[in-house]
Amino acid sequence: MATSGSIDFNITADKIIRKALALIAERAAEIPLTNNEISDGLESLNIMVKNWQSQGLHLWKRAEGVLFLDAGISSYLLGPDGAEATLEDDFINTELNSLAIATATVLVVANTANMTAGDFIGIELDDGTRQWTTIVTVDSPTGLTITDPLTDSAAIDNSIFTYTTILERPLRIEDARRTRLDSNTEVPLNKWARQEYFAQTNKTSQGTPTNFYYQPTLENGQIYIWQTSDSVRQVLKFTFQQTIGDFDTTSNTPDFPIEWAQPLIWGLASMIGPEYDAPLDKLDRIDVKAAKFLEDILGWDEEITSLNIQPNFRGS
User: Fold this and answer.
1) 10 Å Cβ neighbour count for 271?
2) Phi, psi at residue 56, to the nearest 5°?
3) For residue range 157-213, what is the model confidence (pLDDT) as tens digits?
């Protein structure tokens, strides 16, 4: 009986390009790449992956995000220059254990577990806003020092949010749920089209968010919330599609499960074949196999769910 070894096989961009060139009979797969082949191969590989990225939601690129809401704010940028938002796994929620006066830089909180120097920290102030700054040092299991002095006092039990990395720009937001710090309940929001959101006459109405619209603009996406939150204690949790990583060098491995290796190799061969004047009959065969491998993997890359069927008791 055969035994399995470690599960760590992967493939680099260098091997993908060399194998693709070998398929179109441009060179033997073991021959090192020239500088031009590296440059052209990486460019074509990235162009192909960006095209695939637009073809649907890939299971391994789904993630959960958290947006920290402000009272009365109707829209937020999501991305490197955007609002305070992060991955749900990066979000730490605690509260003040001692009154903090305005100008304070040392805070006593319930728990500093998993917080580190340089993390972003948001303190709920008594004026109903949340002040964001960074952590200078984590001094003890309940003590920390922040960079900027508080601009207002903060009472015991006021909420504290921390995270390490700001959220990347979501390609798409599948769904969103609102929740409050004093409740473990997550309530789904309705996903609106652009026209539905902009048709609202009062976009700054405060209350409980019930709807959202997301626009994936180029640098930072923009999410619109209606109604706007009436408290900084409300947060928005959402499922989103992440960007597939680039191939920057030939030593990069794909930002794909290893099951995608064959579609990547054959897809690249199909894409670059005409540039190398490969025979048409060979290109046709490569195109057919590349399309089949991509179709097969896209069929595998789907969520397995149950299908419920019931009679139509209302009649036709």
Assistant:
1) 19
2) 155, 175
3) 999 999 999 999 999 999 999 998 777 789 999 999 999 999 999 999 999 999 999
